[in-house]
Design goal:
The complex is a heterodimer of chains A (157) and B (460). By secondary structure, chain A is an alpha/beta fold. In chain A, 36% of the residues lie in helices and 13% in strands. Chain A has a single domain, classed as Rossmann fold. Chain A has 5 helices and 5 strands. Chain A is globular. The two termini of chain B are 52 Å apart. Chain B contains 11 helices and 7 strands. Chain B is α+β, with helices and mostly antiparallel strands and 460 residues long. The chains are: A alpha/beta (157), B alpha+beta (460). At the A-B interface, helix 1 and helix 5 of A face helix 6 and helix 7 of B.
């Protein structure tokens, strides 16, 4: 691995974000985490625009996506990611408090790679976030940069 | 009209149509009778006209006979005799016709009979005079020649003829009057009938219209109530959604920051402070559990239900397998009676047994040997009553009504843990299956929980 790909955490609640960061810190992957405070910011990051216009090019290793967020909610972000050929290969993990059936089925229908319900208990939460961060950010081999090109359909068709 | 309000629309319509039908039958019968009278009268009229005409012919014939026999008597010219005979020959036929035109046994027939008699006498008299003229010449009939034979008969005949004519004309007039009356009667009746039918049809229409309007109103109300219910359900769903999402977050934060604090302050905290932090965490966890249970309970009420055949024996086996961690290190004597197949939702019924068996395990924890029995209390043709019995701490029967309520607990949390949702869920699930739940018990002498379920319909 030449470049360390960042982990994108979309979390509108600063406390949840802090707790998640605390969990990541325990496994020394906190420096890889970029926190976005709403869906619009996530899209700005992914499309390198706004405050992220000067960031290093390339897709994150994984996006942790909360469902309920201001401006653009999690499902909309998911939909945008999965319908864009360049962003489609990014693994998206829904990280949410909702256990509702409709959220689950909608998320998977839109192409979510995983769905994790945030446990109330801190130790469970910390374990979950840690394991998710380690699995998707370290263990999982992300798609090679430029893999998106293969999915492209010739414009003449 | 109270009895009328109790009638169903079908009955009202049936009675309405029955009345219309009866009205039509009566009116038809009367009209038929009137028409028959009209036809009979017209037949009688024809007869009367013929009779009057015939009387004219008879009169003419008689006149001709009388004048020709008189001319013969005077002149002795045979040609008069020939013309006399020609007209007289017609007479019997006329009389036969005449008789045919009068009613059997009527007064007119009597008159015709008398008329015939007189004519015969007249003709006989004329015949006799002719014979005499032939035998004795003009001198023999001189006294007759000018006046002719049978003068009296002729007068009687004329009188009778006038009488016959007058009576017949009078009868004719009477019949004309009757026919006119009967025609008017029929027209009036038909008009009345049409009016009656119109009224009845109108009332039948009003009845149907009223009923249809009522039905439409009820359907509309049902629809609007359904919409209200749907809106309420949606609101409830939104509520439980926000409960599941928003209420959990602060709890997570309480527990999270308590843990972070305990880690950050770690060594500097004394035992008391550490215990406080643990209590904060414990309370947050407990509330998380409560919210989860409440959500399951609310979902149980909204979820669509399956209706399949469920083998209770099989179900209990899987439940015991799932609870195997709770069974570790416990001395339990199980008594399992065979259970039938029921009709219902497998996942929901599984929840029932998980809750009841967990309860039995929980409340027998203080016993050296737990005794748990599952069997059938009663089996009817369509449903079965199942019980789960334990030898645990039991309960006081005076609190039996509280057992199945939401958040109702009969034990302190430091005695037995729990959120008070389990039995409420059992009741809700059993109610959704169309069954009922109840319990028996005594303090320190165990408890028995009963529920009824519809049996699976076997094909045999």
């Amino acid at each position: 691995m030449t470049t360390v790909k960042p982990i994108l955490l979309a979390e509108d609640n600063p406390r949840d974000a802090e707790l998640a960061m605390a969990a990541m810190e325990e496994h020394h992957i906190a420096d890889k985490v970029v926190v976005c405070r709403d869906g619009a910011e996530v899209l700005d990051y992914l499309y390198c625009r706004g405050t992220f216009s000067s960031r290093q090019q390339g897709n994150p290793a994984v996006v942790f996506l909360d469902l309920k967020m201001p401006k653009v909610d999690g499902l909309e972000v998911l939909k945008t990611i999965k319908s864009d050929v360049n962003l489609k290969p990014i693994p998206v993990v829904m990280l949410t408090s909702s256990r509702e059936e409709c959220d689950l089925s909608q998320s998977y229908a839109l192409g979510a790679n995983a769905y994790v319900v945030k446990p109330v208990e801190f130790h469970q939460f910390i374990t979950a976030v840690k394991e998710l961060g380690v699995f998707w950010g370290v263990i999982n081999e992300p798609p090679p940069e430029g893999s998106d090109q293969r999915g492209r359909v010739p414009a003449s068709v | 009209m109270e009895w009328f309000d109790h009638w169903s629309i079908e009955r009202r319509v049936l009675v309405g149509f029955g009345l219309v039908f009866a009205g039509i039958v009566v009116i038809s019968a009367i009209s038929y009778r009137n028409t028959t009278i009209l036809i009979e009268n017209s037949q009688l009229d024809t007869k009367s006209h013929e009779l009057v005409q015939l009387l004219g012919s008879v009169e003419e014939t008689l006149g001709t006979a009388e004048s020709s026999h008189r001319r013969y008597l005077v002149t002795g010219d045979e040609s008069y005799l020939t013309s006399y005979r020609t007209v007289v020959e017609r007479m019997p036929e006329y009389l036969r016709y005449l008789k045919g035109l009068t009613n059997e046994g009527g007064q007119q027939q009597d008159r015709v009979a008398k008329f015939e008699q007189l004519i015969t006498r007249q003709l006989d008299a004329e015949a006799r005079a002719i014979t005499q003229r032939k035998k004795h010449g003009y001198e023999g009939v001189r006294h007759l020649a000018l006046s002719g034979a049978g003068k009296n008969e002729i007068d009687d005949i004329r009188r009778l003829m006038t009488e016959l004519d007058t009576v017949e004309q009078r009868a004719l007039q009477a019949r004309v009057a009757q026919s006119a009356g009967s025609t008017q009667n029929t027209i009036a009746l038909l008009g009345l009938g049409a009016f009656l039918q119109l009224v009845l049809l109108a009332s039948v229409y009003v009845l149907i219209h009223h009923d249809v309007t009522e039905r439409r109103r009820v359907a509309k109300e049902l629809r609007s109530r359904g919409e209200l219910l749907q809106a309420a359900n949606k609101e409830l769903e939104a509520f439980s959604y926000s409960v599941s999402h928003d209420l959990r977050a602060p709890l997570r934060h309480i527990d999270g920051y308590a843990a972070l604090l305990s880690k950050a302050a770690g060594d500097t905290l004394n035992d008391k402070a550490r215990r406080y932090l643990e209590t904060i965490s414990g309370s947050a966890k407990q509330m998380g559990q409560l919210i989860d249970d409440l959500l399951v309970f609310s979902r149980m009420g909204r979820q669509d239900m399956l209706h399949t055949t469920v083998s209770l024996d099989q179900l209990i086996k899987t439940v015991l397998h799932d609870l195997r961690l709770d069974l570790q290190g416990r001395a339990i004597s199980w008594t399992m009676h065979p259970l039938p197949n029921v009709s219902g939702d497998p996942a929901m019924l599984r929840q029932v047994f998980v809750n009841l068996i967990s309860n039995a395990l929980k409340f027998t924890a203080t016993r050296p040997e737990a005794k748990i029995e599952i069997g059938i209390a009663k089996q009817g043709p369509t449903d079965v009553e199942v019980f789960v019995r334990d030898n645990g701490v039991g309960f006081d029967m005076q609190y039996v009504d509280k057992l199945f309520g939401v958040f109702q607990r009969l034990h302190r949390n430091d005695e037995f843990e729990g959120t008070g949702i389990g039995l409420a869920n059992v009741r809700r699930i059993i109610h959704r299956h169309g069954g009922r739940t109840w319990a028996e018990g005594a303090l320190d002498q165990g408890a028995t929980f009963y529920f009824s379920l519809p049996l699976a319909r076997s094909l045999s």
